[in-house]
Write a sequence for this structure.
């Protein structure tokens, strides 16, 4: 059985940057999980004593606080900056961008529409930069019956599918006098999604590696499943099953933007043992 990695996969710029910041900030506490990958979070805690607080109220007596890649709510950021705690901002620049857009366009009187998961920490943070309550949707039909006013600014969570974002934008353009559309989906998301789509059309089994609470990883899995029915999402090599690879000729492998190379290599090495046994 051939094992083939997608053309683009794994760590994006923002995650790589955040990991480097955390490794250089020993004995610090992150506000929420730094990234959506439990294996890497555990490594940072074991090797660099970088612990995780669920919110600013859980920091305790920490001397250094790292802002997670997804960012945090604006008011929480202001509170922690006003304290005696050293603040180390690891917010991904691709997340800072929609925060700034929402703040600017909201101040100009635009109703804000966000395409994304309202419960995701990135979206919670971005929402907090609006003067008035934004509209957050995951599907086009959720916009039906809403009165938007004359001016709307629409952005996307950085890890969503561009095809779905376009549906939201097109719906608004046909119903609102002025619509400003800001493409805030990061380049790494585009590249990883295109690569997994291409590989899944050739493979007869696909392994998607990453945190099961990771939005971009789940998007890769969904795309892969659309083209290869035998697609599986795993966080580590212990979750692999030999039966998945029986009578398969090409195993495709991709990984979410929060997945470090050491996890990918462990999983590929394990798949190679199945390939040999077959």
């Amino acid at each position: 059985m051939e094992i083939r990695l997608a053309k683009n996969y794994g760590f994006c710029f923002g995650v790589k940057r955040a990991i480097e910041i955390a490794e250089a900030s020993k004995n610090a506490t992150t506000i929420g999980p730094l990234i959506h990958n439990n294996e890497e979070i555990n490594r940072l805690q074991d090797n660099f004593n970088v612990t995780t607080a669920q919110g600013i109220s859980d920091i305790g007596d920490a001397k250094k606080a790292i802002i997670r890649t997804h960012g945090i709510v604006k008011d929480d950021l202001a509170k922690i900056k006003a304290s005696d705690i050293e603040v180390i901002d690891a917010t991904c620049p691709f997340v800072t961008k929609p925060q700034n857009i929402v703040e600017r366009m909201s101040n100009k009187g635009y109703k804000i529409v966000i395409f994304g998961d309202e419960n995701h920490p990135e979206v919670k943070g971005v929402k907090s930069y609006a003067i008035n309550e934004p509209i957050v949707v995951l599907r086009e039909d959720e916009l039906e019956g809403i009165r938007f006013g004359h001016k709307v600014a629409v952005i996307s969570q950085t890890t969503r599918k561009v095809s779905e974002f376009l549906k939201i934008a097109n719906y608004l353009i046909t119903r609102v006098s002025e619509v400003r559309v800001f493409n805030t989906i990061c380049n790494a998301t585009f590249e990883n999604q295109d690569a997994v789509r291409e590989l899944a059309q050739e493979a007869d089994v696909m392994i998607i590696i990453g945190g099961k609470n990771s939005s971009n990883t789940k998007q890769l899995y969904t795309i892969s499943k659309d083209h290869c029915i035998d697609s599986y999402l795993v966080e580590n090599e212990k979750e692999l099953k030999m039966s998945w690879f029986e009578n398969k000729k090409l195993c495709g492998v991709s990984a979410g933007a929060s997945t470090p190379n050491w996890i990918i290599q462990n999983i590929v090495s394990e798949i190679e043992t199945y390939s040999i046994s077959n």
Observations:
- The first helix runs from residue 13 to 24.
